[in-house]
Amino acid sequence: MTSSRNETSPTLSQEVAEQEDLSYLLQVVRPELRRVLAHYRIPYEDAEDLVQEALLRLVYKWGEVSSPQGWLVGTLRKLCGMYWRSRRRRSWLVEVDSPDLDEMAEPVAGEQAYRELCVDLDAAVATLKPKQRAFFLCWLEEPNSEQLQQLFGYQASSVRQTVKRCRGQLQSRLAPWTRR
Asked: What is the C-alpha separation between 12 and 72, in angstroms, rounded?
């Protein structure tokens, strides 16, 4: 049982040897890694991340890889290609989500805002006197002053004046809502 365990888990001396192999490998392959990064024009701040990712993948596959130098360079090339593909996708998304679209789009009130407006309007109309409320609601349905004159017994000038008073009261009640 112990022999199979020793075969699967490395000893401390093997780990030290692997670390020394890894640092030697990095010294040898560093110029090639720089050429790959320069070829793909990877920004400096992202180049280090890509090299670290390639090294981590190498460490995980260390026992399976026959040529670590070639494997590391090939993995870095693949990661560089994936880097630019993901950047293109992200740049496309950024272009679509640009603030210019927000400016061009018409604002759409949400359902919650609509409900709040309805509640505020109902509350504002409820503050009118009963006769004014009935008059104003009728005026909203049919702003024909002749029918309102007959229905409420007002003269033409009184109809305009009453509408003006009702609208003024509603505007003053709804002024805080418009500042939101």
From this structure: 24
Q: Alpha carbon of 129 to those of 134, 138, 157, 170: distances in Å? A: 9, 14, 20, 12
φ, ψ at 66 (rounded to 5°)? -85, -35
Residue 153, CB-side half-sphere exposure with 13 Å CA sphere: 1
Angle, helices 68-96/12-39, rounded to nearest 10 degrees: 50
Distances (CA, A) of 99 to 102, 104, 107, 108, 111: 5, 9, 13, 16, 23
SS3 content of the chain, % helix, strand, coil (to 5): 80, 0, 20
Give tens-digit pLDDT for 44-102: 889 999 999 999 999 888 889 888 899 999 999 999 989 888 877 555 555 555 566 66
Q: Which two tokens mark 14?
A: 């093997």
What's the predicted TM-score (pTM) here?
0.43
Token couple for 69: 């130098």
